[in-house]
Design goal:
By secondary structure, this protein is of the alpha+beta class. It has 2 domains: 11-147, SMI1/KNR4-like; 164-315, SMI1/KNR4-like. Helices cover 34% and strands 15% of the residues. It has helices at residues 11-20, 31-39, 47-56, 68-72, 86-96, 136-147, 164-168, 184-192, 204-214, 220-229, 259-269, 308-315; strands spanning 60-61, 75-76, 101-106, 111-115, 121-125, 128-133, 233-234, 248-249, 274-279, 284-288, 294-297, 301-305. The strands form 3 sheets. Strands 7-8-9-10-11-12 form a 6-stranded antiparallel beta sheet. A 4-stranded antiparallel beta sheet has the order 3-4-5-6, with helices on both faces. β5 (121-125) and β6 (128-133) form a beta hairpin. α1 (11-20) packs across α6 (136-147). The longest helix is centred in the middle third of the chain and has 12 residues, at 136-147. It is globular, with a radius of gyration of 20 Å. The relative contact order is 0.10. This is SUKH-3 immunity protein of toxin-antitoxin system.
Amino acid sequence: MSDGYTRDWSPQTEDVLRRAGWRPGRSVPTVTWESVLHERGAFAAHDEARRFLSEFGGLVTYGWPADSITTSSAIRFDPVRAQWQDERFARAGREAGAPLYPVGTADEGASFLGITEDGALHLMRGDRVELLAPTTDRALARLVEVQGARSALWTPGVPTAEDPFWRRLHTVETGPDAGSRWPEETDRVLRAGGWFPGRSVPTQTWESILLQTGEFEIHDAARSFLSEFGAVSVSYREPWDSMPWMEFSLDPLLALWDAEIIDDLAEQAGVDLYPIGMRDRGNQHLAMAEDGSVYAGMDSVWLLAPTPDEALQKLTSRIQPTASY
């Protein structure tokens, strides 16, 4: 199973990681994650964080077999989920005695995972910080072990704290693009979600992971769109009728294992499609054709809008006209 690699973890851990897409020698660029986190907090990646994310970044472990426990406690090695949480990480680092860089989440996002410069993984939940293990391999083994049981590390089903999007929405100011490029409300929502004029992030991380796992070949329109709007999102919150807009996330990695679905949608649409995100709590894929038109769907497909800017207007259109935010 180890292909000549000697790892300090159990056969169960290796099985779970392989099912998530890990292979010995796996290496993906981390530049996209670093760029987005640099935009959204005082995060400074160190070499051990880069090494860890290069090997495990983008993976989601559900355990095997998947069930209500392992699914709700899924471990997501996606550092961007810690966006705008730099002060919380700074406090956690002081408690841990060493700076922590985000590498993912557990417990449906209620817990963050952070790594120190010496490779020690920590679990952060609320004001609590716990050392999982002094080495990466042993920490991964522990995470996989407790993921499959009702553990004191976390409790499946615990709700996450309110996403920073909803706090930012009250403080962002619209810019000169509002009213010309798109409506003022679209401008405000996009800015709260992480966009700003002139934004340009490298897309190599997304491209590499999707090419490895789904054999997605990116085209120029998708690359340009994701450079400007990748990782922009409107988060879900309870109660549903307090949301003026449908939840969406412009994260292409949400299609990580859905290549067959994207191919089916492309065949129905009669165009090649590249995933750019999802909306409606994962019930609709968003994908872009080479001419910039955006399609949505899951079992069936429809044209959301003929241009990227029109698609963004559709995504930020109110579904609850009287909802308070």
